[in-house]
Amino acid sequence: MAASMDEEMAIVQKAGANLVSERPVFSPDSRYVLCCCGYVVKVFSLASGECVRELAGHKDFITGVKINPHNQFQAFTSSLDKTVKVWDYPDGKLLKTFSVGFPVHALYLLKQEEEAGYAVIKGKGSVLNLIWFSWTNRKGHTIRVETREVLKRVSGQEKHLAFGPEGSFIASVTCNKLTVLFTKSEKVKEFERPKNEFRCVACHPTDACIATGMQDGKIFLWRGLFQKKEVVRTIYHWHTLPVGDLTFSPEVHIPQLIRSPNPVPTGLLMDPRSHTLVLNGRPGHLQWYNLHTDRHLYNLDIVWQNFVSSRRPWEAPEVIYTEIERTAFDQKGDWLATLERRADGLMAEEIKLKFWSFNKEKQSFELNTTVDCPHQGKVNALVFQPHFGADLPPTAVSAGDDGKFKIWTLVDDTDIYRENVCWTCDSVGTYRDLAAKDAAFSEDGSLLAVAFGQSLTIWDPYTIDLKTTFCHTFCTEKDCIRQVKFGHGNCCPYVISTTSSHLSVWNILSCSLLWTVSCECAVLVADPLSEYMAVFSATSDLTVFKPSSPDPVYMHNKVVEPSVVAAIFFPKQNQGAEEQTDEAPWQKRSELYFMTYDQDLLTLQKDAPQQTRKDMTQVDQLESNLPPTPFSMYLSQVRQGKQEEDSHALVQHGTPGSVAIQQMLQTPAHVLPPVSTLCQSFLQMLLVSKSSQERQDDEDMESDSDEEEDNNQSETSDSEMEEDAATGSASTVKQSTSQSEKDSSSHDQTSNQSDSGKMHMEELKELSSSDLLWMKRIF
């Protein structure tokens, strides 16, 4: 029978296909996985594992499949048949076909390119090149795309090329070379490994980081690509065989050495009690710093969490610390309010508002009240209400992105077990569901200003009645109020507000705008002792002014290179001293301090001050008001015990060394001094000293012995003079008797000394074996 040659027949693969020759992709809803299989793409159900669809239509091998980043129900496929097709993969329908004109070996789609993509094609001379293709403003079922060459001599495998976040760079590996192309500058960096071979490459979705798999099973992590210095390379050796492929999981974030926008989110504050500067310290701490003596005084642990430091943060998961974002003192320094927040982007935010009371006996702040989640979101302001001569309970206000400001008051919390007070939310205010960005009290505390978007609202803090509203109609819709301050002294009727483009002064009495200027404001601060205010622009330009006039009092362009992040008018040390005539009027009573992004604390002075001797009286007075540290408490106890021993007022019983050991063992090791400084005082404590009564008894015993010896000698002399005829034997007997009495007295004295030595040995035996072992290890 003759074979029929009329109909052309195609070869179809039914089984045994390689499903992982090209990278499979998962659907965004995790219901399907799409795998390239010869001339078709198979859609598998993740729930059942069955193949539910086959995307058939290509006439050659399919080289890649990608989900449309702008439509999660569409998929792009590339093939050696010189086309790229668009599918509705849940229904298995073909939507469009793009004709590229060359066999497509790999396909890449970016979210930033809505109507364009990247493909690897074989150009002239069988060289593979990366091209950009676009189908913008082209209609029809089959569309011929526009192409442009991007990178030459690349590999045809999809795993050998990757795109950085937002397409900022392209990483390509070929044999022993890693090539990085920066798309904006079109600069190229190349890294070679002569004794190793690159097998695959992947780019982090959000960070400038590249991961490469090597022939010897190692994984290289490349960081610092945009830096001028050398790129940081980290090696992970996890595999004994060559790395086949790798990718980043979408939820993992590799930490970068990127600093926060503001290193001191609490700003610069003054402690009214100690007249020292308070600001952020180590993560979770507040630090007290004396500006006049240039000394760090004290740290207060707010969050009570261990600090974990990573020397190589790019090799380990990022440690998200609980940071203190807001801090405020009341007028007398009796209360401290702190706002801590932890947000890692994965779990719900942890926000706590804490109120601390000052303990005069312990000279330290103690936690009084903790409020979990005071606001549903970030807290932008925390301030106490000033009270001048009024017998009113302390009041604080917080404002947050949840569109609310809350008033917190101190209430009685006494029960049958103890007397106590605590803080509670007294009232809540809102305005048009806008986020509350800042809040401030007037100088006398009778008015409260809260910024909502572009509106500045004035409230009665006692009744929460809205008094008036000032609208920034001259600002754009996205230009919201950032900071609010009331004037002081003669400028108390004015309230000042700043945005990213304007500084405005409002008259509360006339409810009108007094004046406004264009200024990109970054930091606004008011002098509490005068009418002056200072504002720093985003370019670190300083302007000192009075709210009553738009004319500046002092201007200084670019006071420092880094940006200014915080500032404060700090009262001068000697307010009653004679004022210096060479000082500016706004520097008479207070001095302006400001901190840069590099955490440098700076000030403005006409002449650089000379180094003078510090006032030790003020230093001692300040240190007496500071809370004691564990080491100072231990040292004071040791000194007090030594003074009591020297005074001989008390008789010491037991083993004092055991108590000292217990005290040192209970004291944290990081606050103890070096062992060499404790050795001498510790050994002296182990020696049992005689009491005053024992010393007196010993002296009386010695004096009695001397008198008895003298009496015996006088009696012997009288006897010899009266009885000349006495025989030598009688004299011998008397001398023997006297000698026996001397021996008896000497024996009593020796027995007393031996008894004291036995008591000393018995007391030393009271030391436990653990104490002796501890002493041996140290001494």
UniProtKB/TrEMBL annotation:
Molecular function GO labels: RNA binding
Domain of life (superkingdom): Eukaryota
Spans of repeat WD: 55-97
Region: Disordered, residue numbers: 608-627, 690-767
Location of this chain's protein in the cell: Nucleus, Nucleolus
Keywords: Nucleus, Repeat, Ribosome biogenesis, rRNA processing, Transcription, WD repeat
InterPro entries in the cross-refs: Beta-prop_WDR75_2nd, WD40/YVTN_repeat-like_dom_sf, WD40_repeat_dom_sf, WD40_rpt, WDR75
One GO biological process term: rRNA processing
Main localisation: nucleus
Biased composition (Acidic residues): 696-725
GO cellular component, one term: small-subunit processome
Compositional bias per record (Basic and acidic residues), positions renumbered to this chain: 757-767
Official protein name in the record: WD repeat-containing protein 75 second beta-propeller domain-containing protein
